Amino acid sequence: MEQALDSIYRQHSHGYQHDYTRDWQLLDVDMSGMPCGPKAAFGSPGYFAKQRNRRGRQVGRRLPTRYGEVVVDRLFDGKTQLAKALQPLMEAAEQTLALDERQRQRTLVRLDAGGGSVDDVNWLLSQGYQVHGKDYSTSRAQRLAQSVSVWVDDPKVEGRQVGWVRLPASEYVRPVRRLAVRCRKANGQWGVGVLISTMAPAEVLALTQQAPVSNSDPASVRLSYVSLYDQRGGGVETSFKGDHQGLGSTTRSKKRFAAQQMVILLGSLAHNVIVWAHEWLNAPAPLEPEQAQPTRPSCREPLPHYGPLRMVRDVFHMSGFLRWDACGHLVEIVLNQDALLARRLLFSLRQLLAPMHVAINLGQT
Questions:
Q1: 299 and 219 share one domain
Q2: Cα(93)–Cα(185) distance, rounded to whole angstroms?
Q3: Residues 114, 76 contacting (CB under 8 angstroms)
Q4: Are 35 and 54 in contact (CB under 8 A)?
Q5: Distance between start and end Cα atoms, the chain
Q6: Residue 301, exposed/middle/buried by CB under 10 A (0-12, 13-18, 19+)?
């Protein structure tokens, strides 16, 4: 099944076809809890959001954030955290993407504190990857923050300040930059974390889409490193939430570990099909002459902001019927003309199915 998914992914994905010479490949990694029953294999007490004293397993995911596709989903027991799962996840992603040494050097791995131990970061650096993540050790972060001489207020988050760590990072096998981030807690004390990055300021500014002139502004450079880390919340974390809502990924639990891994892989395939279907069905349709206005382009996207939930609920459940010829070949799809999205998707479906000589029409069902 893993080999089949690799083959499908390489055939249809943008992540596999990414042009490393033009831009960075951005890979996010994270873990998500999958609750299960007390008799499920490798189910154990662990961290499950808003569910105390719950048993379950953990799913590790690699996501190329620019494209929203799942490269790798792997199942672990309930006590496994990112520190233990990082290397097998990266090795599986490297195989799926067929990364060579040059491509690894143009791949930025973004991770939270769970994968920010010295050993994990050094392993990524030794493999040639670029790294942007949070330090695992809270005590080390407190010590490093004491070396900051200038703190800069973050206008996007009230009470948050950032500053460069001045101590040398001799424990890492490649040069890194470290940025301390602190926020006031409810008790008035500072909560401190440290970001670790191999990226140069100009590269971070480009990834956060800030003006090149900001490279000369020390405050903008500091804030761009924090902004790049904050963006992971809109990548892998959002993908988990979308699958929970749209695919019900937390509602199907199998007793056998291998069976649950198969369910996870099928969920990965479903996730990617939704991502690709959104692109296939989002071809801009030309407006009618009376609808076109000189102040805007004469086209519209049928599904501009549809996530997994709306794709499954509204698009994939559209009513209609199929017509077959005498040889059993599909020749026509008739969509219910009263369906909300039928007319909006008509042009896209005709473009998609034209090479297969399948007609798309509207009718009553």
A1: no
A2: 37
A3: no
A4: yes
A5: 38
A6: middle
d(CA 118, CA 153): 28
The model's confidence at residue 296, banded by pLDDT at 50, 70 and 90, is: very low
Which CATH number do you get for residue 48?
3.90.350
Q: Are 106 and 25 in contact (CB under 8 A)?
A: yes
SS (H, E, C) 179-234: EEEEEECCCCCEEEEEEEECCCHHHHHHHCCCCHHHHHCHHHHHHHHHHHHHHHHH
Between strands 359-363 and 330-336, the pairing is parallel
In a domain, 273, yes or no: no
As given in the structure block, the two tokens for residue 263 are 């369910």
- CB 161 within 8 Å of CB 219: no
| Residue 141 parent element (H or E) | helix 138-145
In the numeric block, which tokens belong to residue 201? 């300021």
41 pLDDT exceeds 50? yes
Report the alpha-carbon distance of residue 305 to residue 302 in Å, rounded. Answer: 9
pLDDT band at 211 (very low <50, low <70, confident <90, very high): low
Alpha-carbon span 65 to 61, nearest angstrom = 11
E strand or H helix at 238: helix 236-246
- Is position 147 within any domain? yes
Q: Tell me how far apart the alpha carbons of residues 76 and 47 are, in angstroms, rounded to a whole number.
A: 13
How many domains does one find in the chain? 2
Question: Residue 347: in which H helix or E strand, if any?
Answer: helix 342-353
Query: H helices then E strands: how many in the chain?
Result: 11, 15
State the pLDDT at residue 287.
55
Tokens 């990266």: give the residue: 90
Cβ neighbours of residue 112 closer than 8 Å, sequence gap 6 or more: 30, 82, 133, 134, 232
φ/ψ of residue 311, rounded to 5: -65, -45
- Cα separation, 116 vs 139, in Å, equals 13
- Calpha distance 230→112 (Å, rounded): 10
